[in-house]
Structure formats: structure tokens, C-alpha cells
Design a protein that fits this description.
Helix content is about 70%, strand content about 5%.
Length: about 260
């Protein structure tokens, strides 16, 4: 299994994908510079913009790197590297891997398991990108551009807020339920035994609330203290700090 998930051709795919992404980024950067020159932006302002953009990219990249390290123990380096180099969100990818790897350990991982996980992480998620490529322009002109978010009482604004609150509530409910019941399967010699033990834990709810408070604190700094540079990194920063709290709890023997 190690020969498959660490195969040279997977690394080659990772290199090709990375080169493609870097080339595309450089292309659009050059196009943006040409456009900036055309509208009269000076070199000092351009340099400031580039430095700010690079700074805003570093912190989210740390979270992505942590995701690659987290998944590499089971899946090897190439697959998480390719997947998290393209598009998507770290928390969704970790959730997808968790669902696809249910009942699978490092020693019990088979070729069929690896293919299933790779399918879930790649082909199964490509449809959103294809929809945006072929249909989003028409969708945007008919629906998105007509949404009036300035009216706080409009149905469209209420709909978008409700979907977001529902998503957050689902994660909160999952974390809260583990306070009372969290069944984990016993592992012997690296293989699941079909025997479950109840191990209630406060860690998920502590991490959830910590991320919430950190995000609220960052919102306060952005809105009230006008620390505008935090706006681009607040989600990644709150995730990283909350994950750090979980690691500290684990090191202290709290699971």
C-alpha cells in the first residue's frame, strides 16, 4: 500500500498541478500589472499591494499545510498535496476524508479504500467547478445579481443568512452531542474490532466555542478598531488557534 500512495507518478501529478497553478497565478499577476499600469497606478502602490497580498496568503497557507500533514499519515503526501493545492476548504476536505475513511486505519488501508478516498476527494467534488465554468454566468445574471443584500429584511438576505446559520448549527450540534455520547471503535493491532466504547468528551465543544470567540474577537478588531488587514486571515487564524487549543488539550491528557 505504501508503494501506491507514495508512487512516483502521484508525485509527478503533484508537480504538474503545482506548476499549472503557479503558471496561472503568474499569468494573472502579469495581466493585473498591465491593467494597473493602464489605469495609472504607480509602482509604489503596486509594490504595497503585492506585499499585502503575499502577507494575506501566508497564514491561510499554514492551515492548508497542516491539513496536508494531518492527512499524509493515512493517505501519503501526494494525494493531499494535489487536492489542497487546487480549490476547496480545509475543514470540508477533512470532513470528506473522515467520512470516506470510516473504519479504515493505516495498517488496514487497502487499494480499494485508497481509490474510494481519492474519488471522494477529487472526482466527487469537481462538479461545482464545472458548474461554475459552464453555467455560473447565466446563473449569476438571473439570480445572484438580482439579490438585494442591502435590504436587511429582504427574503434573499434572510435565505443566505439562514443557510449559513444552519451550517454552523449542524457543526455545533455534532460537537455538543459528544458531551453525552461519543462511541469509538476499539482498535487492536491496527485493525477495527467491531467493538465500541462510549467515550464522552468536551474537547469538540471547547474547540468550537474557542473558534467562535476568536472569530468574534477578530470581527471586533476589524469593525471597531479598523484593523482591516485581519479581514483576509480571520477565518484561517481562528481555525489554527482553535486547532492549537485541541492539541494543547491532547498534550494535557484531555481527549
Amino acid at each position: 500500500m505504501m508503494d501506491i500512495k507514495e508512487a512516483w507518478w502521484l508525485y509527478l501529478i503533484g508537480v504538474i498541478v503545482s506548476i499549472f497553478i503557479i503558471t496561472g497565478s503568474l499569468f494573472f499577476a502579469l495581466q493585473a500589472r498591465k491593467r494597473a499600469k493602464a489605469i495609472g497606478m504607480n509602482d509604489q502602490l503596486l509594490r504595497k499591494t503585492v506585499i499585502a497580498s503575499m502577507s494575506f496568503s501566508i497564514l491561510p497557507s499554514i492551515g492548508i499545510f497542516m491539513g496536508v500533514i494531518t492527512m499524509s499519515g493515512l493517505l501519503g503526501i501526494p494525494l493531499p498535496w494535489v487536492r489542497l493545492s487546487v480549490l476547496g476548504a480545509l475543514h470540508y476536505e477533512l470532513l470528506a476524508v473522515k467520512i470516506a475513511t470510516d473504519g479504515v486505519t493505516v495498517t488496514a488501508l487497502s487499494t480499494e479504500n485508497f481509490v474510494t478516498i481519492a474519488f471522494v476527494m477529487t472526482i466527487a467534488i469537481v462538479w461545482g467547478a464545472l458548474f461554475a465554468l459552464f453555467f455560473f454566468k447565466k446563473y449569476q445574471s438571473k439570480i445572484v445579481d438580482k439579490v438585494d443584500t442591502s435590504d436587511k429584511k429582504s427574503f434573499a438576505n434572510l435565505l443566505f443568512q439562514s443557510v449559513f446559520i444552519g451550517l454552523v448549527s449542524a457543526f455545533f450540534g455534532d460537537a455538543f452531542s459528544k458531551i453525552f455520547s461519543y462511541k469509538t471503535e476499539v482498535i487492536e493491532n491496527g485493525v477495527y474490532t467491531d467493538t465500541y466504547v462510549n467515550h464522552p468528551t468536551f474537547v469538540p465543544i471547547i474547540v468550537f466555542v474557542s473558534a467562535f470567540l476568536i472569530m468574534a474577537g477578530l470581527d471586533y478588531l476589524i469593525d471597531k478598531k479598523k484593523v482591516s488587514w485581519l479581514e483576509n486571515v480571520q477565518l484561517s487564524l481562528s481555525m489554527i488557534l482553535a486547532m492549537t487549543i485541541a492539541v494543547i488539550l491532547g498534550l494535557g491528557g484531555i481527549y
